[in-house]
């Protein structure tokens, strides 16, 4: 068993006065890859924000990379975040500057000053995601998949020990999603990076299996991926409960099954 890098014990995750998740207990080891699923608003993004220190932890014990979150002073939060790479669904690139300047901005903001070292690191992370020829490109000239690869390169800049990916394939087509998943899994395996990835996509869980956590009814719990047959039946029952004819529901479910995947 590797080093524990995330450890939550009896933690309540709150957004202001609203308790989103209660009595959260989970841990992740170095190099571990875990999916985080759950309906919209179930607490996935809030949990990710708690891990980065964006949401304070008042109840329970939470440790991330040896930082005690419930006793972490605000001046030390940047030290924690330098060890965590975050990948967003909507890329969050700076649209007024080239790819190179997007990455250089992050490095300068985190204390890098040597121009040669900045250039070398940018070239290194762009090579990791297969975009060595895109450093002079503006984000709007890149495809969605290329923009997400830039976002992954940005997350890798400071040699993170953890990557938190919040729906990184949510805006991408199936083929591009598969490419992004291959990159994230390969980085995790090559560099021993711990990855917690929020997703709704059933096909991703099926094609890239790993452990799964689910946010549901204010709790975080371990779960397993439903079988294809169980998922089909669940969707058919849901459609019938809404009053639709069986044949229409069945044909719709079968068509859905050939696309990018169900939302979980």
Question: Would you write up a description of this structure?
Answer:
This protein is α/β, with parallel strands linked by helices and 264 residues long. The protein is globular, with a radius of gyration of 20 Å. The model is unreliable at 259-264 (pLDDT under 50). α4 packs across α5 (144-156), α5 (144-156) runs parallel beside α6 (174-191) and α8 packs across α9 (246-256). The strands form two sheets. A six-stranded mixed β-sheet has the order 6-7-8-3-9-10, with helices on both faces. It contains nine helices and ten strands. The longest helix has 18 residues, at 174-191.
Question: Layout of SSEs?
Answer:
Elements: E1 4-15, E2 18-29, E3 33-37, H1 44-51, E4 61-64, E5 67-68, H2 77-81, E6 84-88, H3 99-109, H4 115-128, H5 144-156, E7 162-166, H6 174-191, E8 194-198, H7 202-207, E9 211-216, E10 219-223, H8 228-241, H9 246-256
Parallel strand pairs: 3-8, 3-9, 6-7, 7-8
Antiparallel strand pairs: 1-2, 1-4, 4-5, 9-10
Brief summary of the model shown:
The chain is α/β, with parallel strands linked by helices and about 260 residues long. About 40% of the residues lie in helices and about 25% in strands. The strands form two sheets. A six-stranded mixed beta sheet has the order 6-7-8-3-9-10, sandwiched between helices. The protein has a four-stranded antiparallel beta sheet with strand order 2-1-4-5, covered by helices on one side.
């Amino acid at each position: 068993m590797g080093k524990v890098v995330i450890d939550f014990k009896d933690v309540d995750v709150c957004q202001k006065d609203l308790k989103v998740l209660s009595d959260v207990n989970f841990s992740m080891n170095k190099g571990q890859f875990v999916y985080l699923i759950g309906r919209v608003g179930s607490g996935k993004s809030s949990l990710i924000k708690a891990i980065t220190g964006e949401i304070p932890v008042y109840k329970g014990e939470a440790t991330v990379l040896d930082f005690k979150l419930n006793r972490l002073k605000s001046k030390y939060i940047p030290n924690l975040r330098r060890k965590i790479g975050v990948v967003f669904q909507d890329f969050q690139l700076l649209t007024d500057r080239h790819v190179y300047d997007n990455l250089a901005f992050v490095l300068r903001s985190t204390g890098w000053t040597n121009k040669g070292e900045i250039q070398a690191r940018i070239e290194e992370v762009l090579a990791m995601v297969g975009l060595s020829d895109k450093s002079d490109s503006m984000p709007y000239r890149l495809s969605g998949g290329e923009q997400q690869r830039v976002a992954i390169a940005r997350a890798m800049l400071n040699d993170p020990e953890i990557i938190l990916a919040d729906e990184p394939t949510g805006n991408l087509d199936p083929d591009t999603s598969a490419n992004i998943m291959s990159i994230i899994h390969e980085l995790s395996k090559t560099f021993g990076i711990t990855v917690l990835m929020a997703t709704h996509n059933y096909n991703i869980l099926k094609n890239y299996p790993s452990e799964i956590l689910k946010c549901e009814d204010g709790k975080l719990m371990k779960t397993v991926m439903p079988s294809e047959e169980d998922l089909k039946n669940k969707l058919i029952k849901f459609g019938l409960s809404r009053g639709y004819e069986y044949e229409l529901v069945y044909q719709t479910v079968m068509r859905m099954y050939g696309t990018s995947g169900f939302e979980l």
